[in-house]
């Protein structure tokens, strides 16, 4: 990706009028190009596309945001990215001002202007004891934050914000144990693996944050494999390899995310091998994550694989329904929002494989609520989330589910509704009931009647059998996912 060079822009700013909407647009375009590469697409679209650059003067860029909520959200969650981008484009003297639209009903929008918080100039206060204490506390907070930033740990990723369920209980317990006794336990390295968006980064960083909380002086470093590999190549090119190697050998807790990216990178693997040996021998803790079990990563040297297997490998599974609900509730609480249980149920039922996507739904819903100033009910939820949740429960009929299941298992509707206990027929029947419950509003009684005049307890049993099998078996999860896709297409 090529960014506008900072110097190009600064030069133009002195040549043209300083207050210049066109120039503000250019600065902002360059900033959002940088931000776009750092945050997920959904969040980018939700929070950055509605922003309008207004003007640029005296190194200060003013952007218009559509509401107070928007301003707070960006400050809370993305301020660091905006600040870094501005620094890259304008230089360290660059400042940001928000123009917040408070009321649009007056013909022309009523706005207030606020500076970006962590760029605001310090206020001079009278020298009184109380204020001295406050300043000292502020400095201490800053020092802690700075250390955390250097560790590249997100302070929000803690154990208290990580919901525990059957899907992650072993990993959770192991991570807690490591965080209490880093380097002095049998779980070294601790390897956490699992699919996309299931909480690997959150869990690893929760260990790091906990270690930092218990022992401020511990040096914890979180690094992605990609960054490690890039820094390593740069160190070789710049003749700093000695410094690079020594730096990594000083770390107390080294957290490396997504080690599958080391595949095929022989030199990087060699460096990791030596760092690993030094840290492990000095009882320093190593924590790794991967999108698959270590033994399934191709292109990593055997001697490294064997070391990665010295400690404990734990997996993360997609969360079950109850855990999904608990995660949604917790994210809502963090945002100080409550929603009706039917809305939580709707999201938990339809977003099943990825916690990041669950979060995306909440963020989008709250953003739309703030933008349109409309009450969040089920209809609003469905229409707002239609890009993410494409199955519209009410459009689906039990006949559609019946057809999809029969065709998938190559059985007839009579088989499905009959009494046969043959494996694929009984499984197909239970999956059909499960999908009917999950994807439609039909009652248990209606579902039972449709699939061969069975009573509601048979439907409950069928649904819970499928849920349990899905938790244990990848094959069952794939079958249900594939059927959902087919049903979605059939009901379009
Ligand atoms: N059990 C959980 N409780 C609360 N939040 C969770 C949980 N699992 C995941 N999350 C949230 O989901 C989002 C995605 O998690 P995270 O980035 O840790 O996933 P990941 O497995 O590292 O993903 P990737 O494979 O893309 O690197 C994060 O915001 C995280 O806080």
TrEMBL record:
* A Pfam family matched in the record: DnaA_N
**Entry function:** Plays an essential role in the initiation and regulation of chromosomal replication. ATP-DnaA binds to the origin of replication (oriC) to initiate formation of the DNA replication initiation complex once per cell cycle. Binds the DnaA box (a 9 base pair repeat at the origin) and separates the double-stranded (ds)DNA. Forms a right-handed helical filament on oriC DNA; dsDNA binds to the exterior of the filament while single-stranded (ss)DNA is stabiized in the filament's interior.
SMART domains in the cross-refs: AAA, Bac_DnaA_C
Sorted alphabetically, the keyword list is: ATP-binding, Cytoplasm, DNA replication, DNA-binding, Lipid-binding, Nucleotide-binding
- What PANTHER family does the record tag this protein with? CHROMOSOMAL REPLICATION INITIATOR PROTEIN DNAA
**Could you name the domain of life of the organism this protein comes from?**
Bacteria
Chromosomal replication initiator DnaA C-terminal domain segment(s): 397-466
Membrane-crossing residue ranges in chain numbering: none
Self-association and partners: Oligomerizes as a right-handed, spiral filament on DNA at oriC.
InterPro entries assigned: AAA+_ATPase, Chromosome_initiator_DnaA, Chromosome_initiator_DnaA-like, Chromosome_initiator_DnaA_CS, DnaA_C, DnaA_dom, DnaA_N_dom, DnaA_N_sf
Quick check: keyword 4Fe-4S in the entry? no
The annotated region (Domain I, interacts with DnaA modulators) lies at 1-130
**Chain residues that bind ATP:** 197, 199-201
Cellular localization per UniProt = Cytoplasm
DNA-binding in keyword set: yes
AAA+ ATPase domain span: 186-316
Family per UniProt?
A: Belongs to the DnaA family.
Region Domain IV, binds dsDNA: start-end pairs: 370-492
Share the domain note from the entry.
Domain I is involved in oligomerization and binding regulators, domain II is flexibile and of varying length in different bacteria, domain III forms the AAA+ region, while domain IV binds dsDNA.
Instruction: State what protein this is by name.
Output: Chromosomal replication initiator protein DnaA
